[in-house]
Amino acid sequence: MPKFKAAIIGGGSIADKNHIPALKNLSDLVDIVAVCSRDGSKARALADQHGIPHAFADAAEMYRTCQPNVVINCTPNTLHYPFTMQALENNCHVLCEKPPALHAHQAREMADLAAQKGLILAYNLQLRQTSEWELLMRCKTNGQLGDIYHIKANFLRRRGIPGWGYFTNREMQGGGALMDLGVHVLDLALCALDYAVPANILANTYDFIGKTGGKGLMGSWDPQKFEVEDACMAYLSFPNKASIMLSASFALNTKADIDRNLEVFGTQGGAKLFPFSLYTEMAGELADVHFSYLEDVDIQLKNTAAFLDACLGKPSNVCTAVQGAILQEVVERIYASAER
Amino acid sequence: MPKFKAAIIGGGSIADKNHIPALKNLSDLVDIVAVCSRDGSKARALADQHGIPHAFADAAEMYRTCQPNVVINCTPNTLHYPFTMQALENNCHVLCEKPPALHAHQAREMADLAAQKGLILAYNLQLRQTSEWELLMRCKTNGQLGDIYHIKANFLRRRGIPGWGYFTNREMQGGGALMDLGVHVLDLALCALDYAVPANILANTYDFIGKTGGKGLMGSWDPQKFEVEDACMAYLSFPNKASIMLSASFALNTKADIDRNLEVFGTQGGAKLFPFSLYTEMAGELADVHFSYLEDVDIQLKNTAAFLDACLGKPSNVCTAVQGAILQEVVERIYASAER
Amino acid sequence: MPKFKAAIIGGGSIADKNHIPALKNLSDLVDIVAVCSRDGSKARALADQHGIPHAFADAAEMYRTCQPNVVINCTPNTLHYPFTMQALENNCHVLCEKPPALHAHQAREMADLAAQKGLILAYNLQLRQTSEWELLMRCKTNGQLGDIYHIKANFLRRRGIPGWGYFTNREMQGGGALMDLGVHVLDLALCALDYAVPANILANTYDFIGKTGGKGLMGSWDPQKFEVEDACMAYLSFPNKASIMLSASFALNTKADIDRNLEVFGTQGGAKLFPFSLYTEMAGELADVHFSYLEDVDIQLKNTAAFLDACLGKPSNVCTAVQGAILQEVVERIYASAER
Amino acid sequence: MPKFKAAIIGGGSIADKNHIPALKNLSDLVDIVAVCSRDGSKARALADQHGIPHAFADAAEMYRTCQPNVVINCTPNTLHYPFTMQALENNCHVLCEKPPALHAHQAREMADLAAQKGLILAYNLQLRQTSEWELLMRCKTNGQLGDIYHIKANFLRRRGIPGWGYFTNREMQGGGALMDLGVHVLDLALCALDYAVPANILANTYDFIGKTGGKGLMGSWDPQKFEVEDACMAYLSFPNKASIMLSASFALNTKADIDRNLEVFGTQGGAKLFPFSLYTEMAGELADVHFSYLEDVDIQLKNTAAFLDACLGKPSNVCTAVQGAILQEVVERIYASAER
Amino acid sequence: MPKFKAAIIGGGSIADKNHIPALKNLSDLVDIVAVCSRDGSKARALADQHGIPHAFADAAEMYRTCQPNVVINCTPNTLHYPFTMQALENNCHVLCEKPPALHAHQAREMADLAAQKGLILAYNLQLRQTSEWELLMRCKTNGQLGDIYHIKANFLRRRGIPGWGYFTNREMQGGGALMDLGVHVLDLALCALDYAVPANILANTYDFIGKTGGKGLMGSWDPQKFEVEDACMAYLSFPNKASIMLSASFALNTKADIDRNLEVFGTQGGAKLFPFSLYTEMAGELADVHFSYLEDVDIQLKNTAAFLDACLGKPSNVCTAVQGAILQEVVERIYASAER
Amino acid sequence: MPKFKAAIIGGGSIADKNHIPALKNLSDLVDIVAVCSRDGSKARALADQHGIPHAFADAAEMYRTCQPNVVINCTPNTLHYPFTMQALENNCHVLCEKPPALHAHQAREMADLAAQKGLILAYNLQLRQTSEWELLMRCKTNGQLGDIYHIKANFLRRRGIPGWGYFTNREMQGGGALMDLGVHVLDLALCALDYAVPANILANTYDFIGKTGGKGLMGSWDPQKFEVEDACMAYLSFPNKASIMLSASFALNTKADIDRNLEVFGTQGGAKLFPFSLYTEMAGELADVHFSYLEDVDIQLKNTAAFLDACLGKPSNVCTAVQGAILQEVVERIYASAER
């Protein structure tokens, strides 16, 4: 069968370091035909650097000229919606950066259009590709966890407010620690509960450190321009009584530089994701199972491959358009609870 | 001034191992004049063993005979209310075991009667006496934490359903992991927020492991008679936007045998209780402060002493009747949310 | 049913510290009626110390006077055979110290007489009562190990030649490290292979350090009187191709003070005994299973109880007379190979 | 003196990564004049890549054309014998990959021909070049170990069946874990005993995991085509009563990914190879000696240099033709015992 | 030979806990005949408690009545001189607590009188009895250290100003950290240099923390009454160019609660005392030797026994009168340098 | 403002690896115009390799031709004085390698000439640029240490006599471990005391290992040509009673390969430099403060930048000419004391 023709929308570092290398590694399946960025010179430079034939400042022109059937949307959050809609309308499968959009209704429209067009829309939530997550899913399937009823999901940075880009700009990003970090572990937690929709949500957001300033471990930020939450705490309760405690922060007075983890508690066993451990009973005794030889994988490469598998109609564990719409809705409800 | 005359109500192990030794250590302040237990022979045996003059099966008779002015109420949860009320009516200061009562309205009545009588009613929440908690309170007072806005409070046992007593009996205990374990760390968390009353609570309770059975690290329990929650997860949000994540379990598929801890996050610093660590900025750098030489204390002795200080009108950090009423109300609202 | 009447033969420290306390702990099942030692005053002292009614220097007199139905034989190795035979002839069940005897033919005779009399003869190989060994047996039964095909059994001391008793005296002990230490782990290894009889054995014994002298970690020994092996290395191959590597030493230039362990390798999993770990595959990955909460048990108490269970016709994991005969035969063949 | 002229026989990865780089590092002593591989194009590519003047598919032609005086035989096991014999007949010194050959009689013929021709034949057993082994030999020479009487030699992989090449093919390799891994530590153990010939050998081989399949840490293998042993256990007893316990595995349910080590027990001291530790007595106390500053060396480079030293008549610690013949004989006797 | 008759002078805790138990353990060599304390009731109580026949408030009377031939002087520092002189004049061997005296001339007089009388005068510097120190001396004798040319001697406490006794009283103690702690490690360091007399000394003393106050790990002290040094730093240079760096503190802002150690540097090897390690070269490599099995000893018992050995004319490693005089002289010169 | 024009004097590895890369990294401030080495071909090669326009064998010619205004003096110790004087006379600011000179009077002359000419003369003591040192200085400024009264300064190598260059040549280097290593930590210690001049110094130097030979961890050295001290121990006492214990070695029988550290003891707190820890009291308890996130910096780059800052009249923490003169004087007094 013919190879996919992929266009990259967005000329930033995530295109350069993540998506383009992944696609080039999958060159038996896909060719990159164009890069498109509002700043045409950035598009040009990126195309030259990676040997991509075309560069555009205008997406419409790109569609006319190159007729891609796959689009990688790696624009800022605020542009996820318009550029994904345009791509779908141009009959392209889309792999869109996270979060899905700024608003829940946008993510739903995106999912609806993809369904209507019979196209794949997927989100780049790559933690699903870690060996640890895949092992957790296998343990779940094998029954080693039983029914999962509680999850603690953390993505905490002590002083990790990014000192570059739009990360502290509410208009461009739509939010802070939850939008940027929390969605990763929230997506995993929802997966563990089969993407059920929460019945109730109670949450709070904070911005004390962001607005005060301090030592930065990811560059310096300007407290004057800090418009988003530096921490978000949320509790989600589900119709079947399962629950999630979610903690996300750009800045928090906590021990570790970074604490990104998931703890899952089920009727037969519990598990911690990093390093992967299983807590259960075996031969009548309490058993702690460690897996020392999990493979180190390139999670971007695997997620891009999983997206292409989906486009080819194969089984795939990529985050779907429908899941993305639920995820965005949950994010919106968390912010709503925090502002009540 | 004359010594206090103390009566012990309840003839179980907590009287024998905790309260009587503590009072005997404070013999310059207090004499134990009587032990009272519905099972008169238990009262007799305890009195003989500890050289206490009187033993009673009937409390009313005890009050008539001995006229104590201090009562230690170490009966099962369901009897905290009636025996405390009776003691107050007999003009005794009361140190009552936790939880305050089975229902919020009981704890409020108890507080009201104590106030009306001008008596001290206090609860035996001894974690307040740990060196770590006192240090946390000093750090809070000194401003080393700034304003506290989030707390994670855990009291988790992996397989610690007590295989004796009434711990799994709903009628006698009123609940399970929350009533027995959770109240300890919930009390500390509420203290850290100056015992504010939560605006919103969302919670869930579980009983999967308790009702299924398995390895017991605190004796064996009978799954058929397991009537309470083996785990309780709750989120509390306060009028000033502060929040508490509370996790308590008798049984959970988690790593450690026991995980009893508090993490406190403030605008100037964060702290973990056991071992006590402070996470903050110092001289422009991120600083982790450890305190290796904290004194190991007898927390029961210190709590009993703190109660007597209160009776003497001195400053005291013991849990007050009013705080106990709030604590009981929060417990009741957590259960209510879990049953919604 | 009536209690057993037990007589102790041998007045040494193992009677005093191990067997008598265990029997006293089982006083609902058994009464100790007599102590017998060639040194009558030792017998007398031991009886007085433990409140045992009778003491004898002559065993025949003891049988006449007290008519016990249970005998604990805790004499030196060389007396295991005659006193056990006498006890069986006096219609007593016998728990005999290890090793079973000095020679294989003795152990076989002892087993034959017990069978003929319908009496229980068991050996005091208490490592079978450790929580770790019981867990290993459960794992074997559950299939978590598959078929076991190789075992490494070690009981190594770096400088642990006992500086007291008969441990270095060939006539009294029959041998050194193998007779005293090796039999413990050899018994476990043979159990793991269902007490199959080896097809071939190749072995060596050494006495370099014992005959030279040096630092003693268990008292000082006299190199001039060192008549036994200080180390024994053996390889056992079984009809089904399974194999055991056995290493035992009183003295060896090795790292640890004491290294007493068993590693078991099976088709589905492998296990190490101390601390108990299971090495296997789970959910498609290599898994290391740790059991942090194994109970600490009094292995002498459990072994004595297991012996009494056997006497009562109940299931029991105590080392049987038939197993003891095989064990002694293997020991004899190891020595024979070493002297070839 | 003139430089050696070396020819490489065998065009695989071990030529490319090990032998050719080592020879190039020793360019003041030797020039590589030719590469020879049955697959002429592989020879050509390798020659081009490394700037070697000639490439041949036919060895005879190579000898005629290039007249080398040194040959590196890095062919598959089955070809060690014919190509080494041919090289010796062409008056070349030979460094041959391990194991020496498939059969003991081949290795003896090779040694005989080398002796008759006055040529050096050596085997590439590079562990002899580790700093640890050289230190062990110095300790042995200095008397710090006394007489060595027992050795435990392990080369165990948990799941390390190579998923490439001929490693599971009996015809090409002659065996599995023993042939590929075991010979390395067996060679060291025999060296430690001055390459004495064992008086007795008892051994077993297994192939349960290899024939069943499972997780592979060195690529995937096909259980259907697994024809060799995945584990080999052996005991060697020597005329002077010394003994070796040898354990080698491609796959075994054991803790570590790889456990390659030697423990040596002598009358004055014992030693463990990795990390090097000496266990002995000093100043009347038990002493553990650690050597933290051993040099990290390129063992292939050192072994090739040692071979060239031998060719130049200098002292050398390379494995000699005579040692190789003994080693092969021991391997053959191990397999014979396992098949008895 | 007849047993020694010992009298105890001084009724404090060091008599009660150290010296009397040691003497009682040596009851085959010595009987305690009397206790003498200026506070007669203390003497009486101590005598009764330990079953000692006589108690006195007046030493002269004690000598008349009991005629001891051994005296243990465990009075405060200021009384070491007068009571030791009196004991010698009464023809008693004397074991005197450290430091020898308050002034160098006193210690010299004491040594002179002992010499003149032919009596043993020894000081209770018990660190000489640790297994580690004895091993160091053996290593020195065996030549494993070569010539020792530098020593770092530390006895540092972070906040260890004793909150009881006379420790902060200059008149009674003569000094602080040096007098109480420093002398122990100074004695060892001087021993290591064969008790040579320093050619030059440069030193400083401090009292900042002692006079300011703070957290006390050995009870609370009164900064107002702190009259001695809380830290003393000194450098000693010897005629043969060897040197000692001495650091002693009651209070210092340093890491460990207590750091009591000696590092010795010689031409052939260096050693650290606790835990004992030897740093040297062996077999041409840098070697770190650890001794994991050193015996835990009762250093007071061993020092008392060593004193009695000296009294019996046997070899003994106890600190002699002459060494004590040098030690006191060095202490005096250190204080003199600090006050220059 | 115009860029500086820098000339490099000295063509060794420290020019190549440290100074030239640092200057190139600061190319917005400075151009390298020339390299000058007595060995003209070395100068030429270095210039070519780094793209520097000019190379000279004669410094006078260099000054005439290139007219630099900045000179980096990286010649051997013996040439620090003449080349720095020449550079100052040619009106250049100078960054001179450490130690300042061979003799104290030289360093004073250098400082005097720099002052007279109004030029910057600074020394390349780069440890001042570590994050740890800068943090220590901030703690000192903030009062977290109080008054510093004692410092232990160590720069110890176990076997680190450099096997190259002039390091063991007295004439070229002026000394050994003190001149090469000790000056680094001595400079820091003096800084911590505000570069006070010591009132008294007592010191010793040793050369036992250097003159005997042994294992070398930094190459092999020739004991026959070892003319300097391999170890230097010194004690410095200051007018305000503060003290420094300084230990420096090329070779010493000590534990660690390298031990380079500073411990600082003050009235309010103490600190250890690597890893940076602060020991103090906080909230009434003893507190150990760790700083886990200190930045890893290029200390040469920072020191060169600090030197240029000084040349530009900006604040700078570089070691000044006046400090260098004091440092050299202290070094000279240490050697004088050692030779007394």
From TrEMBL, chains A, B, C, D, E, F:
Occurrences of domain GFO/IDH/MocA-like oxidoreductase (ranges): 142-271
Coiled coil: none
Start and end residues of each Gfo/Idh/MocA-like oxidoreductase N-terminal domain: 4-123
SUPFAM superfamilies documented for this protein: Glyceraldehyde-3-phosphate dehydrogenase-like, C-terminal domain, NAD(P)-binding Rossmann-fold domains
Entries under Pfam families matching the protein: GFO_IDH_MocA, GFO_IDH_MocA_C3
GO molecular function, one term: nucleotide binding
Family annotation (Gene3D superfamilies): Dihydrodipicolinate Reductase, domain 2, NAD(P)-binding Rossmann-like Domain
InterPro entries in UniProt: Gfo/Idh/MocA-like_OxRdtase_N, Gfo/Idh/MocA_Oxidoreductase, GFO_IDH_MocA-like_dom, NAD(P)-bd_dom_sf
Annotated protein name in UniProt: Gfo/Idh/MocA family oxidoreductase
Source species: Larkinella punicea
